[in-house]
C-alpha cells in the first residue's frame, strides 16, 4: 500500500484568511508551525484582532489552554492550527468537541511527523514514527498493529489492527 494513500484530508496549502472574522486565534505547534502561522496572520486583515499561542505539541496543558480559549470565544472567531499533522488534528478535534465548526477552523500542516494509531482491539492510542502500512506495537495491549490508511478526524488517529490476525496460531 502506498504511504501517500490515506483518508486524511490533505492540507489545502496557505489558504487566504477569512475577511470577516471577528478575531483570529492561531495555535501553532513547533517552531515550523509558528512560522507558518505568522505568515498566514500577516496576510489576514490588519484590523482583525489576533492572538497567537505557541506550543511544542498538543499535550494536556496546551489542550486545556485551548479549551479555555474556546469556552471564552464568541461567534465569528476563526481558529488556525499549524504544525505537525497529529497536533493540528488533535487541536481540531478538541475545538469541534467544544462547539467550533469546520468553517471556523483552518489547518496548516507543516509536516506529517509522528502518527497516532488507534488500536481496534484495546482502544488505546499509540504514537509512532512508522508510516502507513508499517507495523507498531500497541502501547495498551502489546499487539503488533498494522497502521491502516483510514484516518479519524474525530480521534485524530489512524486505525490500527492486529497484523496477521487471520493466521491460525
Helix content range = 10-25%
Low-confidence stretches: none
Termini separation comes to 25 Å
| Morphology | elongated
- Count of β-strands: 9
Number of helices: 3
Notable traits:
single chain, 169 residues, alpha/beta, five-stranded mixed beta sheet
What's the helix and strand layout?
Elements: E1 23-29, H1 30-42, E2 50-55, H2 60-72, E3 77-83, H3 85-97, E4 105-109, E5 115-119, E6 125-128, E7 135-137, E8 144-152, E9 157-162
Parallel strand pairs: 1-2, 1-3, 3-4, 5-9
Antiparallel strand pairs: 5-6, 7-8, 8-9
Overview of this protein structure:
It is a single chain. This protein has helices at residues 30-42, 60-72, 85-97; strands spanning 23-29, 50-55, 77-83, 105-109, 115-119, 125-128, 135-137, 144-152, 157-162. A hairpin with a 4-residue loop joins strand 8 and strand 9 (157-162). It is built from 3 helices and 9 strands. The mean pLDDT is 86. The strands form 2 sheets. Strands 6-5-9-8-7 form a 5-stranded mixed β-sheet, covered by helices on one side. It is 23% helix and 31% strand. The protein has 169 residues and is α/β, with parallel strands linked by helices.
Task: State the gist of this model.
It contains 3 helices and 9 strands. The chain has 169 residues and is an alpha/beta fold.
Amino acid at each position: 500500500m502506498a504511504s501517500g494513500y490515506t483518508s486524511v484530508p490533505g492540507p489545502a496549502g496557505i489558504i487566504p484568511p477569512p475577511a470577516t472574522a471577528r478575531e483570529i486565534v492561531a495555535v501553532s505547534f513547533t517552531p515550523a508551525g509558528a512560522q507558518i502561522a505568522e505568515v498566514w496572520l500577516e496576510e489576514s486583515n490588519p484590523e482583525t484582532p489576533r492572538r497567537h499561542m505557541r506550543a511544542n505539541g498538543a499535550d494536556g496543558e496546551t489542550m486545556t489552554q485551548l479549551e479555555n480559549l474556546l469556552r471564552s470565544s464568541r461567534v465569528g472567531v476563526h481558529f488556525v492550527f499549524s504544525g505537525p499533522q497529529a497536533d493540528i488534528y488533535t487541536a481540531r478535534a478538541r475545538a469541534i468537541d467544544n462547539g467550533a465548526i469546520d468553517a471556523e477552523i483552518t489547518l496548516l500542516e507543516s509536516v506529517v511527523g509522528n502518527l497516532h494509531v488507534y488500536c481496534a482491539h484495546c482502544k488505546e492510542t499509540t504514537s509512532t514514527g512508522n508510516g502507513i502500512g508499517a507495523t507498531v506495537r500497541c502501547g495498551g495491549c502489546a499487539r503488533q498493529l498494522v497502521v491502516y490508511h483510514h484516518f479519524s478526524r474525530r480521534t485524530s488517529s489512524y486505525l490500527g489492527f492486529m497484523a496477521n490476525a487471520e493466521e491460525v496460531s
